[in-house]
TetR family transcriptional regulator
Amino acid sequence: MEQITRPGFATRRRTQLFDALVDLFLAEGFAHLTLDEIAARLRCSKSTLYTLADSKEQLVREATVHFFRRATEDVESHIAEINGARERISAYLSAVGTALTAASDQFMADLDAFPPAREVYEQNTQIAAGRVKALIDDGVAGGDFRDVHAAFAADLVTTMMVRIQQRGVRDSTGLDDAHAYRELAAILTAGISA
């Protein structure tokens, strides 16, 4: 009997599995989980997991990529309709903080301890800093911000984003990620306002 597949079903199913995998990892971390445990928790077979990646290490890396892709889409859709450079930077950094609130301490510790996933996170931090730099450049060009060295401001943001994501800011100030990003946005935009 010929199997009929609906167009897009495999892609949809793959996305659903990665979404569930990301949610599991964000809540509990991933270092302690075996492939058998992951399959059981996702209610799928190990062979299904192997359609996503060839090993647990690759699965973790791909799930981390999926998380940051999903977070980026959420952040960008959040700021799409916002006008004004100051408001866009504030909304962007707040949305980044919101996207990270789902990440448990265990996930962040596992992420930091696993070089392939940490590399994905560091790359995404650099991309986010570049996005902030572009928003600052737009604000300078539009007269909303004084003429600042946008690369320096972006480097400052990058440094703080890393400290926030590594929980250094929370440990030293008690601020959760979302509040830390809002404070960063307020300090940054007030400091560069025209």
In short: Residues 57-192 form a domain with the Tetracycline Repressor; domain 2 fold (CATH 1.10.357.10).
